[in-house]
Design goal:
- This protein has helices at residues 4-20, 24-40, 42-46, 62-71, 96-99, 147-153, and strands at 49-51, 75-82, 87-92, 100-102, 108-110, 116-117, 126-129, 133-135, 140-141, 160-164, 170-171, 185-187, 192-194.
- With 201 residues, the protein is α/β, with parallel strands linked by helices.
- The protein has one domain: NagB/RpiA/CoA transferase-like (Rossmann fold), CATH 3.40.50.
- The strands form 3 sheets. Strands 6-3-2-1-7-10-12-13 form an 8-stranded mixed β-sheet. A 3-stranded mixed β-sheet has the order 9-8-11.
- The longest helix is centred in the first third of the chain and has 17 residues, at 4-20.
- The radius of gyration is 16 Å and the shape is globular.
- The two termini are 23 Å apart.
């Protein structure tokens, strides 16, 4: 059990390395395909309020999905790290160009003065979560901060949890702690994985 942090870090480093090595042209094509697949999910189509995130580095370009979410007339919520509580605060965003600015770790975050805070986090019906590596049973390995697990643990109503990733980020197994929350769907450029079909309830 003491080996878990080391195992997670090894998986994280390997996945990040593979992701960084993905050629730009292929990444662009994969991003477009993943976005199309995300938009086809029935849970997305039915949701009125959706939680997303702004990508950075070699991540899936979630900005494509964010733009389409607004075009679809959905209520978009984006996270901002609260440095006092070390947790995520959620804000309603309808104009990313003017309401976001570079924040912690170079990630675009809502500017508090330009956005309305989402008072009831249970309004979120669909959540697109970031991550570094994933397994088919819904296990998600993030960047190590535990921000999303803490946020989801506060929700009385659990939204549909979805992760977008390149196929090379799928691994055989990710060790889980009690506080880790599994995702319902993983969407890659090649497939849409129903994690409940592989033992995730």
């Amino acid at each position: 059990m003491n080996d878990m942090p080391l195992i997670k870090q090894t998986i994280r480093e390997r996945s990040l390395l593979l992701r960084e090595q993905l050629p730009a042209k292929i990444r662009t094509a994969f991003n477009a395909t993943i976005t199309t697949r995300l938009l086809q999910l029935p849970e997305y189509k039915q949701a009125g309020t959706v939680l997303g995130y702004m990508n950075f580095g070699s991540e899936y370009a979630s900005e494509l999905w964010v733009a389409q979410t607004l075009a679809d007339g959905k209520q978009l919520v984006l996270p901002k790290v609260n440095r006092h509580t070390n947790q995520l605060d959620l804000y309603l965003v309808d104009d990313p160009e003017n309401q976001l600015d570079t924040g912690l770790w170079g990630i675009r975050e809502p500017v508090v003065e330009r956005c309305k805070r989402l008072n009831d986090i249970n309004e979120v019906e669909f959540a697109l979560l970031p991550g570094v590596a994933f397994s088919r049973d819904g296990a998600r390995l993030g960047y190590g901060g535990g921000y999303y697990d803490k946020l989801l643990a506060q929700m009385m109503h659990r939204p549909t949890l979805v992760c977008a990733a390149f196929g090379l980020q799928i691994v055989a197994q990710i060790p889980q702690e009690e506080t880790d929350i599994k995702t319902a769907w993983i969407v890659t450029e090649a497939e849409t994985i129903d994690c409940s079909a592989t033992g995730n309830t």
